[in-house]
Amino acid sequence: MSLRAETPPRAVRIGRFSRAERWVHRTTAALMGVCVVTAAFLYVPELAQLVGRRELVVRVHECAGLALPVPVLAGLASRAFRGDLRLLNRFGPHDRVWLRAALRRDKRRASRPAGKFNAGQKIYAAWIAGATLVMLGTGLIMWFTHLTPLMWRTSATFVHDWLALTIGVVLAGHIGMALGDPEARRGMRTGSVSQEWAEREHPLWRR
Predict the structure, then answer these.
(1) Around Cβ 52, how many Cβ atoms within 10 Å?
(2) Helix (H, G, I), strand (E, B) or coil at 192
(3) Which of 1, 97, 140, 188, CA to CA, is 20 to 30 A from 195?
């Protein structure tokens, strides 16, 4: 009888995100990060004092903001990306069950059915997409001051500043949840996840 320990079987991994989808996510995250960091240096007094070339920071912020929609538009060339957009844009009965469980703080897996994306991820995707468009629109109004009346520019500045703060809070929550789920991060990094994780977290996902 051999005393040598048997090699444990490798966990079965399944594809979750294509290379194009991971590129869209990483590029968008990088541009969003630049917008958030430069905004902090422009509006937080303690950080603003550290900037020697404020005009350069403004230009970097504007360019990153204008480029934000580009990765998503480029990603539309990918069939996998378009397919995931359709999934994110559809709410089913199981999503309402998931939301009710989340509101009750019911963390049992059986009470939170989910397809490839759960209801929370769908709401986040819709909200961040809408917020990005609003930020882009208000930013353009603030940039091209000669095209709109003063009242529009004042209102745009108010919306832009407060929505930027809200985006920062929401992004912090998004990052915090990602840090709490290593397998989800691995899926976004490598494109695949373990079958055990998929069956536990997304039991309705038909691969």
Answers:
(1) 7
(2) strand
(3) 97
